[in-house]
Amino acid sequence: MLINIIFKLHMLYSIEIYSFPQLCRHEVVGIVTEVGSKVKKFTVGDKVGVGCLIGACHSCDDCSHDLENYCPKLILTYNDLYHDGTMTYGGYSDTMVANERYVIRIPDNMPLDKGAPLLCAGITVYSPLKYYGLNEPGMHIGIVGLGGLGHIAVKFAKAFGCKVTVISTSPAKKKEATEHLGADMFLVSRDEQQMQAAMGTMDGIIDTVSAIHPLLPLIGLLKSQGKLVMLGAPDRPLELPVFPLIMGRKTVGGSLTGGLKETQEMIDFAAKHDVKPDIEVISMDYINTAMERLAKGDVRYRFVIDIGNTLAASKP
Length: 316
Hints:
Its cofactor is Zn(2+). This protein has ten helices and 17 strands. It is α/β, with parallel strands linked by helices and 316 residues long.
């Protein structure tokens, strides 16, 4: 374990069933308890976290440009095969061992429970805002969907100094978007009059919706040379109208999390600008109930599992 560190898990963001009989997850945070002899970045007692990935080839073009998340040999934090052929099991445990390259330092002023979801949802929205140049103060940015990704996208865009409009099918989310999250405007995507009035006003749109939905109305909201960035992953192909792209030199792109360097940059930025996700901390014995609530969309906006206190409470 020369380049590995061991850390005691405190918090684990979110819940997901991926490959039965596993129940595993990423976005893990805790405190370093031991370091290998060649570890240089961390010492015992540091606040750290591991996000979506735990390994890559370190030799491809993507890895050489700090884009490990696009490496063809990417190793996910859970439900994947590690270099030695063993299964990666994520964060449902009391300790975790990780290569220091894949460990993120959690800033002192970022609480562990708030920091955990940033290691996935945070970097997933931060990276495209930066890469596509949608982080300039005064830009008008649309956020489609107000869920786990959408709510933190609003916060990052506002922290960049952008004007933010939330685009949703649900009028009931307007108060949440504008009064609680600080969005400047709210559009109901099913309201043709509202959508028509906003045509050609946005520099970029971050689309977080994974359900099947039409892209033409969103493309219409963009200014010339505007950019629509897809983060959601619908289970069927979406129809992409080409003519409106040609007429406005508009771009449709995608993005997947971020590399380790950018993830550290993201959480440092979040700590500096007080960007924190809205979470609900739960104990491990609440997971079944949490799964039922997730199926109903009854969470604002991330469950975070308190492993440390759950295990402490279970000791006789």
